[in-house]
Design a protein that fits this description.
heterodimer; A: 206 residues; B: mainly alpha
């Protein structure tokens, strides 16, 4: 009997003296919501750090071609972090403008969403627009953090502001045209984005 | 559930003395006896009823459901009236919902504007440059691009320039009010004046559509953008007047010449073109002085109280005129010496 019990028992459990031992993998038959079968917390929340980092790198390097497929998921975690970071850096300059950042983001997203739906053949979702615009706010966060150290109202500040607006709008338009296949219309998409980021720049500079 | 079941076991099936008159107090069992009250058949409650009935359907045991159907039939006319009322209200709700979504798709559908945003960058660039070149032939009706992307972007650019001008003047007003003023002014001009000129064009029998008028006037704002962008940063009155006449004038001439080519009759042409020129030129003047005066006021305050009031406005011109006078006197002196 003992050799038969040895062969019948589960090899990985090592419990040779307990033939009635049930392996834990069979517990889903009794309880569908068992702890072992739950997804990791970040997956359940939809937060994918590698995608967030990939998109951040795409924004930081405007010359790098954007991958159209990464825009399919409307991830708002990165944009939320960047908006809060913008508000925080503005706070460090003595400006409490969280409400303005929120209002301008909301109205800007709506405007760009309407415009892109009118201009592109494929439909775009509001979440995708909000995600792209939020990610491309990162250079503006860098500008407002530099505003903590020196004032942006001189010549150097103006040049820096114009460069950052160009950087943001170039990245945003690059992502939009790769996601919506609007080759040849990058300038037409970049200009409204530049106007939106210009309003953020006004908030940062003045 | 157990409470209702307990009471039902003890009392007759059609006993009307139960306390559970109002259905849906957290019970999972649909008590058909008490469905005669009319509180559930009003139109406003149908949405809620739908939701509750959907939730209850998931929990009702099929056997109990069969028994309740029998009860419903047994109740006769009284039960039928309640159910009929509910069905009618349900149909009215569905019909209303269908009509509302149809109306929404018809009127709030922005796809009707889609053809007016189908442009290439090179087309926009060419139209921007052409907006400063008046046409010469009035006998043939000139073509107007029926496009809204360029005009819309120009109006937003004008809003941004106005905001920038107000901000560089250092006015400490909440950004919301500044933004509202700028947007209201620019969009009000574009849409309001376009509508007014379209109305005049209709009266004067001009061959132009509302879309073409909006496009024409929108592209006419390109000159305004250039003038304001330069003169908000270079505070020089003489320069502003020159730009106003030259660039503002060219832009107005373009609009006027196209309207003239599309209108028949001297009086009609005069009315239409006079109105457009006056409004277009005066708007630029208004934008400069309404938002530029603030700049001068702030600059004077920063200089201190030592400057006498009569020198405030022509301050920049005085410097230039002094230099010009000096240069002129010197050249006259040199000329006299050589002769």
């Amino acid at each position: 009997m003992p050799p038969e019990q040895l062969t019948q028992s589960v090899p990985h459990s090592g419990h040779f003296s307990e033939p009635t031992y049930t392996p834990p993998t069979l517990s889903y038959l009794n309880d569908p919501n068992s702890f072992e079968d739950e997804l990791p917390l970040l997956d359940e929340l939809g937060i994918n750090f590698s995608h967030i980092w990939q998109k951040t790198l795409t924004v930081l390097n405007p010359m790098k071609p954007a991958d159209g497929s990464i825009m399919n998921e409307s991830d708002l975690t990165g944009p939320m972090i960047f908006c809060l970071a913008l508000g925080a850096t503005l706070l460090l300059s003595g400006k409490v403008h969280f409400g303005y950042v929120y209002e301008i983001s909301a109205v800007g997203c709506l405007g760009i969403y309407c415009l892109l739906n009118l201009m592109s053949v494929t439909e775009v979702s509001c979440g995708c627009v909000a995600s792209v615009l939020g990610y491309c706010l990162l250079p503006m966060v860098l500008l407002s953090s530099s505003a903590v150290i020196f004032s942006l109202q001189g010549i150097i500040g103006t040049i820096l502001t114009v460069a950052v607006i160009g950087w943001c709008s170039l990245s945003a338009s690059k992502m939009f045209i790769s996601a919506l296949s609007m080759e040849g219309q990058q300038l037409l998409v970049a200009y409204p984005c530049a106007l939106l980021y210009g309003v953020f720049a006004l908030l940062t500079v003045f | 559930m157990s409470g209702v079941g307990g009471i039902r076991n003890g009392s007759p099936e059609w006993g009307g003395f139960d306390d559970n008159i109002i259905q849906g107090g957290g019970s999972a069992v649909i008590d058909m006896e008490n469905m005669d009250d009319t509180s559930g058949s009003s139109f406003e409650d149908m949405g809620e009823m739908h939701q509750r009935m959907k939730e209850e359907e998931d929990e009702v045991d099929p056997d109990m459901a069969a028994a309740e159907d029998e009860d419903g039939e047994f109740l006769g006319v009284k039960g039928l009236k309640g159910q009929l009322g509910r069905q009618v209200a349900d149909q009215v709700w569905q019909a209303g919902k269908r009509q509302a979504s149809k109306a929404f798709n018809l009127y709030a559908n922005i796809d009707i504007l889609r053809p007016y945003f189908d442009v290439e960058p090179i087309q926009v660039r060419n139209r921007l440059l052409e907006s400063l070149i008046p046409v010469r032939t009035f006998s043939i009706p000139q073509k107007i691009a029926g496009e809204l992307y360029g005009p819309l972007m120009l109006v937003f650019t004008l809003v941004a320039i106005l905001l920038h001008g107000m901000k560089t003047s250092g006015t400490v007003i909440r950004e919301g009010t500044l933004m509202g003023t700028a947007i209201g002014t620019c969009f009000g001009y574009w849409l309001g004046v376009s509508s007014f000129i379209y109305f005049l064009a209709y009266l004067c029998n001009a061959q132009i559509t509302m879309l073409q008028m909006m496009s024409l006037l929108g592209y006419g704002l390109f000159g305004h953008c250039i003038v304001l962008f330069v003169t908000y940063n270079v505070h020089f009155h003489f320069l502003f007047y020159v730009f106003w006449l030259v660039i503002g004038g060219l832009s107005t001439l373009r609009v006027v010449s196209i309207l003239v080519s599309r209108t028949v009759g001297s009086t009609q042409r005069l009315i239409l073109c006079g109105t457009v020129s006056a409004l277009h030129m005066l708007f630029l003047l208004y934008l400069h002085f309404a938002y530029h005066k603030v700049v001068e006021g702030i600059l004077d305050t920063l200089e201190g109280p030592n400057i006498p009031p009569f020198q405030r406005v022509p301050r920049d011109i005085q410097l230039v005129s002094n230099n010009v006078v000096n240069a002129t006197v010197k050249t006259i002196g040199l000329l006299l010496e050589t002769h």
